[in-house]
Write a structure and sequence with these properties.
Layout: H1 2-25, H2 27-44, E1 49-55, E2 68-75, E3 83-84, E4 97-103, H3 112-122, E5 123-134, H4 139-146, H5 159-168, E6 171-179, H6 188-193, H7 195-204, E7 211-218, E8 233-237, E9 245-249
Length: 251
């Protein structure tokens, strides 16, 4: 019975990711991602280390940063994903990554708490966790409530609430940014006409942007998520230049 339940959950999750990917490939998803890509790149300039893990519900090019030696895509089986896993069970050892980027991983998820727990566990002490989500207090959040698309199923969790979760997981919130102040419009012509909104909103950092980005640092000492006994084999990100996943049994 448990196996059947798990299979159904996996099927639901894969269906959700597939529909989310299709939406992000559309004009609205591209509009959002284009703005996010620039902000994420900007914030990664302040991070450093050997490994960055990127989790997102869509196909995308690897995130590159001059200060991080190796970027790895992790998640559902999609083109470009190097480490395939379920959202509630990442095959990484604790403290494996210097930086983890959750780009809409909480928005399109069956269990946002579980995804955040796995991401938090994977970050080394002193490392960073970057979370991008759809801002519920924006025109994009309003569209989420009225949409008949997959966007309707997005969680759109308030950034303050995510910040509280991070605090419980032993992270200190260092920065909060907002972006994409242009409303969700399919027309490229109207998007171009309203680009000034993005310029003004970005300068003022008003909390009405279509997405938010939280930058959190894992504390050396603090509360940590409880570790669960794991039976599956775990992967460890090895020190460079050996950029590959090794497999070993978890303790």
């Amino acid at each position: 019975m448990n196996h059947d339940h798990s299979a159904k959950a996996d099927a639901c999750w894969l269906s959700l990711i597939d529909e989310a990917n299709a939406w992000f490939e559309g004009p609205l998803g591209q509009q959002l991602r284009e703005q996010e890509r620039r902000v994420i790149k900007d914030e990664l300039e302040r991070c450093f280390g050997s490994y960055l893990v990127h989790y997102a519900p869509f196909v995308d090019a690897p995130i590159e940063s001059q200060k991080i030696k190796r970027s790895v895509r992790l998640g559902a089986p999609m083109p470009g994903v190097e480490i395939i896993c379920e959202e509630q069970s990442w095959p990484l050892t604790e403290h494996a990554a210097d930086v983890v980027v959750l780009q809409h991983g909480l928005d399109f998820s069956l269990s946002p708490h579980a995804v955040l727990r796995e991401a938090a566990r994977s970050v080394r002490p002193g490392g960073h966790l970057l979370i991008v989500g759809i801002n519920p207090w924006s025109a994009w959040g309003a569209r989420h409530l009225l949409s008949r698309e997959i966007l309707r199923q997005a969680h759109c969790i308030r950034p303050n609430r995510v910040g509280d979760w991070l605090n419980l997981l032993g992270f200190a919130l260092e920065k909060r940014r907002f972006g994409c102040y242009c409303p969700p419009l399919s027309s490229a012509r109207w998007q171009k006409r309203l680009t000034r909104l993005d310029m003004i909103g970005e300068r003022l950092q008003a909390p009405a942007g279509g997405f938010y980005l939280l930058v959190a640092r894992k504390l050396m000492i603090g509360l940590r998520p409880l570790r669960q006994n794991r039976r599956e084999r775990m992967g460890k990100l090895l020190p460079l230049p050996v950029a590959k996943i090794s497999r070993r049994d978890a303790e």
